[in-house]
Amino acid sequence: MGSEVSGASGGRTLSRVVLGFGLDGAGATGEADEVTVPRQIRRMKLKICVVGDRAVGKTSLIQRYVFNTFSEAYVGTLGAKLHLLEFSKEIAARQLVQADVGLFDVMGEHGSRDQFRDALFWGSHGFLAVSDLTRPETLDSLIEWVNTVRSVAGAVPYRILLNKADLLRWSSLDPVTEESLSKLFPNVPYSLVSAKTGAEVDRAMTLLLEEVVDGVLAKSRARRAGRLAGNRILAFALRRGPTGVTKNEILLAFKDLDHNALMREIEDLERTGLVSREEIGPANFRIVLTEEGREAASKLNLHDHVVEEPT
Ligand SMILES: Nc1nc2c(ncn2[C@@H]2O[C@H](COP(=O)(O)OP(=O)(O)O)[C@@H](O)[C@H]2O)c(=O)[nH]1
Ligand SMILES: [Mg+2]
Asked: CB atoms < 10 A from the CB of 305, how many?
């Protein structure tokens, strides 16, 4: 199946900052004192797919978003086409997220979707599910697209785009579409868009990307918290020496942490050979640092990981 890449390597740089942080702009005015310098830049790479039946307007929406153009001609997409762009979001005072976004324009055939689902959707961080407002059946079949992408990529965020809003007689949704939406996609955000006029296209994409970025940040926060918990357990066990610590003591000492996450951390410490575990009674165990664990624990900066001993 065909696959094309457009982007910096294609001669034309498709660099696009959607939510401008103002670095370039401020620099260009020469007003150095107005330049806001981010204290921290967090980079990430995101894969976003655009899915939906043939001719709903996936390619047109991407063309509108990336190049700000539109064509009436229908040229079916072969395989998948990749566009590279940039997205920035200020997440806190002087904290900037800079995402390299790979936007995948996926061919709308059900056959290729099902045959190449893993290759197409693996690693997606989010997706746009597009239907054609003038063909209600394209909204009904969207549920299959959603299920297919999520079966490969997991429960990633997505947004429904109801395209060709310019062809609607009224500016709001008809009751039938509204009912399908709430039945098939309860609580899923959606936008009425038009690739032809450009209405709402930028906003819809920005909202999805913001949700995706927030999700990625939340995941990495959880991972960091997990690592920290692992370190705290190591530090705790180091102080105990050969006596080790029991599960119940750990649970008492780390009341602020989620029980399951704590158990996962202990399992990881055991799997990586840092602690050895001995069952004591039906629902309790004791962990003792291995030599490797002692070495790892003594390298930790224990002042950063103060543990409240149970009293
Ligand atoms: N009136 C109108 N036509 C559209 C719109 N978006 C796409 N089209 C037309 O619908 C046809 C299919 O669009 P395309 O982007 O190729 O669909 P894809 O198969 O989903 O990629 C083309 O003839 C487009 O010009 C829109 O917002 N309004
Ligand atoms: Mg297409």
From this structure: 16
pLDDT digits (tens, 9 = 90+) for 267-311: 999 999 999 999 998 889 999 999 999 988 888 765 444 444 444
How many C-beta atoms lie closer than 10 Å to residue 174's C-beta? Answer: 13
Pocket of ligand 1 (CB under 6 A): 54-60, 71-72, 74, 76-77, 108, 163-164, 166-167, 194-196
SS3 251: helix
Distances from the Cα of 241 to the Cα of 232, 273, 275, 291, 305, angstroms: 15, 16, 12, 11, 17
58, 67, 74, 104, best to mutate for ligand 1 pocket (most atoms within 8 Å of CB): 74
pLDDT tens column, 243-259 = 999 999 999 988 888 88
Domains by residue range for the chain, with CATH? 4-218 (3.40.50.300), 223-300 (1.10.10.10)
Say how far apart CA 61 and CA 163 lie, in whole Å.
8
Residue with tokens 């050969």: 242
Give the global pTM: 0.75
- Write the pLDDT tens digit of every residue in 161-207: 999 999 998 878 889 899 999 999 999 999 999 999 999 999 999 99
Distance CA 108, CA 56 (A): 9
